[in-house]
Amino acid sequence: MDVLLVMMLFLKFFLINNGDCTKADVVFVLDIPENMGYSNFYLGINSIGKFADTISGSSSDVQIGVYVYSSNFIAIPFTYSKDVGINDALNSLSYPAGRYSSQDSFRNTIDWMLTLSQGKRFDASTYVFLLTKKDTGRFTNDIAWFMDKGVSVTWVVVGSSVANPGSYIYLPAIQDAQAIAQALTNTVLAGQSFSEADVVFLVDGSNSMEPDGFHASMKFLSTFADKVKVGPSNTQVALIVYTDYIIRCLLFSWNFDSETFKQTVSSISLPGGSTDHVRALTLVGTTVLKLSNAKRMNA
């Protein structure tokens, strides 16, 4: 089958299917110990368990991770909760002693949990629920950073009432775990469709492509940019051109629009040489699909 025909079939599939998503990866952050206290800590644990039970009755495919924000590093990544079951994972948690972790640990730990190696799925919507007793402002900059990367952050206040924390979603204090779980479920299900996409193109630039095949690949990229609205608020594109080493690596953070992407593509010619597919695929996971390089979690 002609290479351009294969690519056009992909484009048709993309345009038809870039819509509903029924997958969600949810991270719960328990802000303890001094802030929440013993009883509210277990209220939070109970709420997460009931959320898991409630969401399992929907059509969504939901993974759950948990991070206990304290001086003791306690994290349940998606891989662990999937292996042992979220209820057993929650039952393994106990109220920790110690003061808060360093200020950087919140962002660094959540960023670590939202990686492929810890079971994060890049075709799933992403949510972070921060369970806390009050808004101290300690997380404001971190939350703004995550929301800028397309991660939905929800404050869940238990045990007391606080003012609406800025533009973030606010759930008022509820002492009933089932009510909290239902409110969280409604939040996740309400955001289960989106039209944004982050697309990475890998183009083999070795001699095996030959000039005609490489030209067809570049022509497809231009056609894609014509058919799809490219931009930071729409479909983001990244491009890797490779042989046995990386020739070009254009990241999402370059903020292409359709015209600038087409202009950049038109300037690339066949490099030639041998092929190392593993090197290119490794670069996708280690560099391109990173929040720091403008990868959006909800795309």
Describe this structure in words.
This protein has 299 residues and is α/β, with parallel strands linked by helices. It folds into two domains: 3-18 and 195-293, Rossmann fold, CATH 3.40.50.410; 23-190, von Willebrand factor, type A domain (Rossmann fold), CATH 3.40.50. 40% of the residues lie in helices and 20% in strands. The chain has helices at 3-17, 37-55, 78-84, 86-91, 103-113, 140-148, 177-190, 210-227, 258-266, 277-288, and strands at 23-31, 61-69, 74-76, 125-132, 152-157, 169-171, 197-204, 235-242, 246-250. The protein has a six-stranded mixed beta sheet with strand order 3-2-1-4-5-6, sandwiched between helices. α6 links the parallel β4 (125-132) and β5 (152-157). α2 (37-55) crosses α7. The two termini are 30 Å apart. The relative contact order is 0.14. Mean pLDDT is 75; it is low at 1-20 and 161-174.
Summarize the structure.
With 299 residues, the chain is an alpha/beta fold. The chain is 40% helix and 20% strand.
Strand order of the largest sheet: 3-2-1-4-5-6
Total domain count: 2
CATH structural architecture of the largest domain = 3-Layer(aba) Sandwich
Biggest β-sheet description: 6 strands, mixed
Mean pLDDT: 75
Number of strands: 9
* Subunit organisation of the chains: single chain
List low-pLDDT spans.
Answer: 1-20, 161-174
Order of helical and strand elements: HEHEEHHHEHEEHEHEEHH
Question: Helix coverage percent of residues?
Answer: 40-55%
CATH superfamily of the largest domain: von Willebrand factor, type A domain
Structural class: alpha/beta
